[in-house]
């Protein structure tokens, strides 16, 4: 993938408000990463690693259950972004991401992002604003779903409805 293609992907998937120069600034901070099918990209409970820009491939998002198993939260296909909360919150990953196919990523590590912030990078601030907007939309969807589930408490199968919602939440997230 050429530098121009990476820059264009950053501007279209990661943050639409970036100028070409700002996208170039972020692209210079990225680390290319290839993950083979079946391998974990990140693990629930691990220290935050950064933002993963999924350029090619498909991943599954998995969450540990109370009985020690795992529950699929959804499948995400390229182009997309994963681990965005790692840039703004110093807390463990909230889910496991496993590659379904061979995947190509670019990783913006927390350290590189912090360097951009320390340098007062407008691109980094625009990225934070975009992440905040995406998280706000997800929270609004989740709030609506919780209200719906409480209202339909007597319904025969809220589990199926919740499973559909989880798939929709992760398949429709975008930057």
Structure explained in plain terms:
It is a single chain. By secondary structure, this protein is α+β, with helices and mostly antiparallel strands. It has a single domain, classed as Jelly Rolls (Sandwich). It contains six helices and eight strands; from the N terminus they run H-H-E-E-E-E-E-E-H-E-E-H-H-H. The protein has helices spanning 3-14, 20-29, 85-88, 110-118, 122-151, 158-171, and strands at 31-35, 40-42, 50-56, 58-64, 70-77, 80-82, 96-99, 103-109. A four-stranded antiparallel beta sheet has the order 1-8-3-6. Helix 5 packs antiparallel against helix 6. The model has no long low-confidence stretch (mean pLDDT 86).
Let me know the number of strands.
8
Helix content: 40-55%
Instruction: Give the spatial strand order of the biggest sheet.
Output: 1-8-3-6
Can you tell me the number of structural domains?
1
Oligomer: single chain
Q: State the CATH topology.
A: Jelly Rolls
* Coarse shape: globular
Query: Which spans of ≥5 residues are poorly predicted at pLDDT below 50?
Result: none
SSE-based structural type: alpha+beta
CATH architecture: Sandwich
- Helix-strand topology string: HHEEEEEEHEEHHH
User: Given this structure, which CATH class is correct?
Assistant: Mainly Beta
Q: Count of helices?
A: 6
CATH level 4 superfamily: Jelly Rolls
Instruction: Report the major sheet.
Output: 4 strands, antiparallel
Q: Radius of gyration, Cα only, in angstroms?
A: 17 Å
Beta-strand content estimate: 25-35%
What is the overall pLDDT average? 86
Distance between the termini: 21 Å
């Amino acid at each position: 993938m050429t530098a121009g293609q990476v820059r264009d992907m950053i501007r279209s998937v990661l943050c639409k408000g970036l100028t070409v120069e700002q996208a170039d600034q972020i692209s210079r901070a990225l680390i290319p990463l290839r993950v083979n099918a079946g391998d974990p990209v990140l693990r629930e409970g691990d220290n935050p690693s950064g933002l993963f820009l999924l350029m090619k491939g498909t991943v599954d998002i998995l969450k540990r259950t109370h009985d020690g198993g795992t529950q699929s939260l959804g499948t995400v296909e390229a182009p997309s972004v994963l681990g965005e909360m790692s840039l703004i919150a110093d807390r463990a990953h909230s889910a496991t991401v496993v590659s379904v196919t061979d995947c190509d990523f670019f990783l913006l590590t927390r350290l590189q992002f912090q360097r951009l912030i320390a340098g007062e990078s407008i691109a980094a601030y625009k990225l934070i604003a975009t992440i905040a907007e995406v998280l706000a939309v997800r929270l609004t969807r989740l709030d609506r779903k919780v209200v719906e589930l409480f209202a339909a408490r007597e319904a025969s199968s809220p589990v199926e409805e919740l499973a559909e919602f989880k798939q929709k939440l992760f398949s429709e997230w975008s930057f």
